[in-house]
Amino acid sequence: MKLHPVRVYASDENLPREQQLAWKIAEVAADPVAVTDEVTDMIINRIIDNAAVATASLTRAPAVAARAQAEDRAATPVAPVATRAGSTVFGIEGRYQPEWAAWANGVAVRELDYHDTFLAAEYSHPGDNIPPILAVAQHAGRTGAELVRAIATGYEIQIDLVKAISLHAHKIDHVAHLGPSAAAGIGTLLGLPVETIFQAVGQALHTTTATRQSRKGEISTWKAHAPAFAGKMAVEAVDRAMRGQTSPTPIYEGEDGVIAWLLDGKSAAYEVPLPEKGEPKRAILDSYTKEHSAEYQAQAWIDLARALGTKHPALKSVPELVEGPAIKSIVLHTSHHTHFVIGSGANDPQKYDPTASRETLDHSIPYIFTVALQDGEWHHERSYAPERAARPDTVALWNKVTTQEDAEWTRRYHSNDPAEKAFGGRVEIELTDGTVIVDEIAVADAHPLGARPFARQQYIAKFRALADGVLDDAEIERFLELVQRLPELTADELAGLTVTAPALPAGPKGLF
Fold first, then answer.
1. What is the DSSP string of 330-383?
2. Could you tell me which residue ranges the MmgE/PrpD C-terminal domain spans (predicted)?
3. Which of 390, 397, 298 is nearest to 353 (CA)?
4. Candidate CATH numbers 3.30.2290.10, 3.40.640.10, 3.40.50.300, 3.30.1330.120; the one for domain 296-441
5. With the CA atoms of 361, 366, 368 and 370 taken in that order, what torsion angle do they form, in degrees rounded to the nearest 10?
6. Which residues pair with 330 in a beta bridge?
7. Residues 6+ apart with CB under 8 A from 65
């Protein structure tokens, strides 16, 4: 890996394109380096993971609405690829315009907040790269091997940007790193020249910078749409760049560019790691998926909460937990991010509101810890049900849960050493009889360094569990057999890299 210095340049400094970050990203995308077997295996895992959470979302309102928009835009075959034009959409048969397939599938994948994650200077769900890249692969008649190379690029670029450039510190949504990474991945897929990918990356970034209000206060259904929008913009940016259209330049470093006015300003200085020419793209191996449908910083806390009842005698009795008065207070000592984004440090009253939206509860660690402690489990539907959130005993205990930033957990959260990087913290539970229970957890059980790391077996089990009752058994087995042959799939076979459900609700009508 090579570190590339990035700063703001005045217009009269005339920064050459070859020295611009967008160009260097494009060079990585255009490098025809082989994908290692380890990375290929993980790409297959993440496609299974995406399909699992998308399947579980097929009847949820955001996915239904986005799918309906795609259905209104069926693909029109055009020679010479008349038999392959268009892309598939999760849940339904047919072929649709690739940007709208990317949109619908992106929403389905993101709706439950239940797929992979990478956290560093910024936050990300790099699996969001897969829907737009796969949609273009199907539309353009690419093979499984070509798709693997493209997804490796998408993960590499997004994770490298996330390691170096913080967006959330300036209240810019994390999908601003997704637009460029998806565009780069599509560039790899199509074998585009560096110049074309450069223009696409710039346009994709320019059109996907938005504020983090989508993840603040009363969190709306747009949370699921934001990354899908970035993927759709990446597809459209590549299309325009292939037609010879150019982008604002320099998009990152310009004196009126993204860094100068949306991020750290004109004195900014970053070092962005990118693979050198001929170096394999391995960043996907730094990411990790979710065992539970909740914000990633909640994963370890769910695992700790569901284990506390068996680990500590004072908490073994369910009535003690159900009867809120048995507990005086619960304090979660954790990282800056957990405290200020999903904890009490956010100062969002909605995080303690039993009538709050699912999206809001998903970003409330006081709620999540309470329910996991009481139930000894976490479920992607039951744990968010309105009647579950409104239980009086839960509300009473929930209001006793607060978070505090701990400098050491913040340091570990930002550590570059995988062996000490942590996303958990220390819990202190004070009972009304004066007993204090202290425990801690560093990483989620499913994390590569956790108690039960996810491997192919766990990804398949997750898919089977979430597809149960949604897909026919034969469809489940068909998909699993196909996806595990990914590197050898022909272009025609790649069209089967989707799932079809027997019956789905009709989508609402809009303008079209």
1. EEEEE-HHIIIIISGGG--GGGG-TT--HHHHTT-HHHHHHHHHHHSS--TTGG
2. 292-486
3. 390
4. 3.30.1330.120
5. -130
6. 401, 429
7. 107, 507, 508, 510
- CATH 1.10.4100.10 domain extents, the chain: 2-286
**Spatial distance between the Cα atoms of 453 and 447, rounded to a whole number of angstroms:** 5
**Are the beta carbons of 119 and 105 closer than 8 angstroms?**
no
Q: How many whole angstroms separate alpha carbon 22 and alpha carbon 264?
A: 18
Q: How far apart (Å, rounded) are the C-alpha atoms in residues 385 and 137?
A: 38
- Give the number of other Cβ atoms within 10 Å of residue 2's Cβ: 12
Instruction: List where CATH 3.30.1330.120 sits in the chain.
Output: 296-441
- In DSSP terms, which residues pair with 271 in a beta bridge? 5
Helix axes 144-164, 37-56, angle to 10 degrees: 90
Q: Along the 512 residues of the chain, how does pLDDT read in single tens digits?
A: 999 999 999 999 999 999 999 999 999 999 999 999 999 999 999 999 999 999 999 999 999 999 999 999 998 765 554 455 899 999 999 999 999 999 999 999 999 989 999 988 999 999 999 999 999 999 999 999 999 999 999 999 999 999 999 999 999 999 999 999 999 999 999 999 999 999 999 999 999 999 988 877 777 889 899 999 999 999 999 999 999 999 999 999 999 999 999 999 999 999 999 999 999 999 999 999 999 999 999 999 999 999 987 777 666 554 445 555 688 999 999 999 899 999 999 999 999 999 999 889 999 999 999 999 999 999 999 999 999 999 999 999 999 999 999 999 999 998 878 889 999 999 999 988 888 999 999 999 999 999 999 999 999 999 999 999 999 999 999 999 999 999 999 999 999 999 999 989 999 999 98
Cβ–Cβ contacts within 10 Å for residue 245, how many? Answer: 12
| Inter-axis angle of helices 37-56 and 98-110, nearest 10 | 80
CATH, domain range 2-286:
1.10.4100.10
3-state secondary structure of 141: coil
The CA–CA distances, whole Å, from 231 to 99, 127, 173, 180 equal 8, 11, 14, 9
- The residue behind tokens 């994908």 is 35
Tokens representing 164 are 């170096």
Nearest to 480 by CA among 88, 52, 48: 48
